[in-house]
Backbone:
């Protein structure tokens, strides 16, 4: 069995936010998220009840986007929410979390266990209204966007672990993803791991993450980024990540990027990826 280790070096320092909401599957209290004893047991409810600039601290466990078998339901991010995993469920300080010991898994395996044919299309869905979010310290796995109907929504076909569809506006985005493992996602199209369609200027930072065992029949098994306007100023920082065993028989296996803006790509590692084209 493979062991996955998080890199603890953060690309950006942690900033305290206005309020902390607690989530723990083992909580037995009031289920209102105000402390670890009374933590929400359901992450979806915690996200729904969060206010702008809230942090959500998540204790170890496996969290599913739905308690049903509807594959179209995902964790639905709100604007200006900051999601942190790696807690055991008794920490008072952020610095006390341990990412290696307290695994927080966001799983699309909502149907029959270990049967990908009934998994979620997308685990994390980022609406175009979302301009600012943090995702730090999670394993995101077992999504399978598999619809082939051309008229179906794109996130039914692409963007398994995370899907973002931007919207034309002059608003600035700030997306920070750190210390995550993106594994065992697949798609019949592109972007089995992360799929971004940008119409906005701003910052996308993906640092200290591991993309492993993702499969896309087209491009970007691990990561696909599109910038859909020549007028944008999108700063993209892809640094200190690991890309391993990602497969795209029909295209680029690790990363597919269609962008002309400022792009930082440094200290990333690649191992045993496969594609019909060279990586980009």
Residues:
């Amino acid at each position: 069995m493979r062991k996955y280790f998080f890199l603890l070096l953060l690309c950006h320092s942690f900033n305290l936010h206005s309020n902390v909401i607690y989530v723990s599957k083992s909580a037995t209290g009031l289920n209102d998220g105000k402390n670890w004893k009374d933590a929400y047991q359901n992450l979806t409810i915690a996200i729904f009840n969060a206010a702008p600039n809230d942090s959500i601290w998540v204790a170890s466990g496996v969290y599913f986007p739905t308690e049903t078998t509807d594959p179209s339901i995902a964790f639905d991010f709100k604007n200006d929410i900051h999601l942190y995993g790696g807690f055991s469920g008794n920490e008072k300080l952020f610095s006390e979390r341990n990412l290696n010991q307290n695994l927080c898994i966001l799983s699309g395996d909502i149907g029959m266990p270990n049967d990908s044919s009934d998994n979620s299309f997308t685990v994390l869905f980022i609406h175009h209204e979302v301009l600012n979010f943090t995702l730090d310290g999670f394993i995101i796995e077992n999504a399978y966007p598999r619809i082939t109907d051309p008229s179906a929504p794109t996130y039914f076909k692409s963007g398994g672990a995370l899907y973002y569809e931007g919207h034309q506006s002059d608003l600035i985005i700030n997306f920070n993803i750190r210390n995550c493992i993106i594994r065992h996602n697949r798609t019949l199209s592109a972007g089995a791991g992360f799929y971004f369609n940008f119409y906005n200027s701003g910052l996308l930072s993906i640092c200290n993450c591991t993309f492993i065992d993702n499969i896309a029949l087209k491009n970007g098994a691990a990561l696909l980024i599109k910038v859909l306007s020549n007028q944008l100023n999108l700063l993209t920082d892809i640094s200190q990540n690991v890309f391993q065993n990602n497969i795209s028989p029909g295209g680029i296996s690790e990363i597919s990027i269609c962008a002309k803006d400022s792009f930082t790509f440094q200290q990333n590692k690649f191992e045993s990826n496969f594609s019909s084209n060279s990586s980009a």
